[in-house]
Amino acid sequence: MQPVNFQLKNEEQTLKLARCFADAFKEKNLGFAHIYLSGDLGAGKTTFSRGFIQSFGHRGNVKSPTYTLIEPYQLPEITIHHLDLYRLGDPEELEFLGIDEICQDEGICLIEWPERGRGVLPEPTLSLELKHPGSNQAQGREMVATAHTPAAQAWLNLTRSHFESDPQIKD
């Protein structure tokens, strides 16, 4: 599948892109997704997750579950599990946490630091890599999104259309 690049000038654009992903997910009526979020510390993975989860109706804080590893959000339309595997010692620990039940083919799993769960995690529906385009974090972020199924590619294309047509995104 062909990756799609998004240029994000600030936190607000990261949140807007997350909302576009959520809206397109709803429009496509997708039943589940495993979204891998990769990138260095401070790249915007949790910011994206916050915008995505709040787009489904969550009104509280969304923090990175760095110490708990998993934070479930039981929302009216869908259940979202937010995982942060940064502190995971061994991928097999995920089996003890019930990863098979958590990442069933229903709901959404947002998985930060998926490389730490390699071999145990389900295959991604969508991979999102956030990175700083230069040495200066003030220059914004770049997100490279890669779909892993035809349905995810259609979701990604609709997301790009929503994001690019938003008048607040344009210069």
What does this entry look like structurally?
α1 crosses α2 and α1 (11-28) crosses α5. Strands 1-7-6-2-5-4-3 form a seven-stranded mixed sheet. It is of the alpha/beta class and 171 residues long. The chain starts with a strand and ends in a 6-residue tail after the last helix. The chain contains five helices and seven strands; from the N terminus they run βαβαββααβββα.
CATH topology assignment of the domain at 32-131: Rossmann fold
- CATH level-1 class of the domain at 32-131: Alpha Beta
Q: Output the radius of gyration.
A: 15 Å
Write out the CATH superfamily name of the domain at 32-131: P-loop containing nucleotide triphosphate hydrolases
Please state the overall shape, judged from the principal axes of the Cα atoms: globular
Number of helices: 5
Oligomer: single chain
- How much β-strand is present in the residues? 15-25%
Query: Could you name the ranges where pLDDT drops below 50 across 5 or more consecutive residues?
Result: none
Helix content: 25-40%
Instruction: State the total count of DSSP E strands.
Output: 7
| CA(first)-CA(last) distance | 29 Å
Give the rounded overall mean pLDDT. Answer: 87
Overall SS class: alpha/beta
Order of helices and strands: EHEHEEHHEEEH
- Main beta sheet strand tally, sense and closure: 7 strands, mixed
The CATH level-2 architecture of the domain at 32-131 is identified as: 3-Layer(aba) Sandwich
